Amino acid sequence: MANREELGIIRGARAGDADCQLALGKLYLFGGASLPRNAPTALHWLNRAARQQCDEAWRLIGSHIPFEVAQHAMPEVLGWYQRASDAGIAAAALVLAQLVRQDQAQQAPLACQQAEAARVARRPATRLAMPAAPCDGHRITPQQYAQLEQLWQHDHAAFVQLARALLHLTPEDADPQLQQCRELAACGGDRHAQLALGLWFARMDGDGKRQRHGIAAVNFKRAIRWLTLAGEQGLAEAWYALSRIYLKPEFSQRCVAEAQTYLERAAELGHGGAQLECGMYAWRNRRTEQHSDVRAAYWLQKAAAQGCQEAEAALARIAAAPKEERWMASLVTSLTRELLESQPLLAARLELAALFGLSRAEALLLDVKEADHGHCLVVDIRASYGRSKRRLVLLRTARERQALDRIVRLFESIDSGPGGLEGNYRQRLYRLKTWLPDDLLAA
Question: Which of left, alpha, beta for 195 (phi over 0: left; psi -120 to 50: alpha)?
């Protein structure tokens, strides 16, 4: 698992910080303290950094990412290899030549695909859609449809824009021409049309519920094809719909593991329902997988941030608010300058207790470096204090995060084990009794 510094870089990269994306790309490219080398992941983060005008990112791509990895990120990375080649990087020039050769070899299949799409455009509309349902909404006029056909032949970008506008105006599955328009837009690369087409072939809505309207016979194979194309363009709803398909009993290739993979992809792209499901799935597996409760808290916090009340209720059970300890009431007042200067580690532990509601044993025995998991604090002292229980404390405010970062940095350079600088539990407790007032210790 990533250490504290790497977790900070990961959080910054996900938030869109170019420097963090570059740093994370380097970690995956050359290997970090706890992150393994992973060229595809390195390319992903370096590519995102390069998009934000980071010159070092495309230089690293040209110098270190091989053709075998780059070919799966076409055509976007082609520009970075072109820049690196122009800058005199020999490795980039070699990969660039291979990418260009592969791109030319793929032009023939692409031409066949466009011919197929044109053939779809010429097919009678009655063969493409279900029987028309009564509808009071807008329909595609013959003039609009003729304009769509003309644009499809000459300007795909303009075609996709017009088709998208008409899809928003026309109720779903109400017009036979609508289905033909959707197929054309999907062939043109519009991800929303691909999603709608995939759901139509699966005869379900975005939540996986069966729809009355749709294709006469469900075609999961074609549904998966279009939903995968939409998901690869960053549409979280497509990955979520795929996870629903792989859970359907009537699907011959039903696979729970495959469904979970797609569910996590949707959650990573910000789908609230997927984040809730990932959180509850991790929580149910907490007894068989280490740190599964930590992952559950992570996804549930993401879902709760989007206003999901069910996720908020689950978080209240997973990481219940700590009971108010009597000794914490006047704890902050005991953090005098004299204590901070002479016993900085003890003072830091008392500050942790005040911030996160730790008991006296938890405050003295907690391994601060191991407890920090970015979004929560894992309080587990069972190895040294058998009467305690493992629990999670969520970090909900920036103040808590900043304070914990400062305290973790303080403990990073020292050995907190029983034989280290702080001593064992009895020695720490004696030090605590020496500094705190008797009435506070009695509480």
Answer: alpha
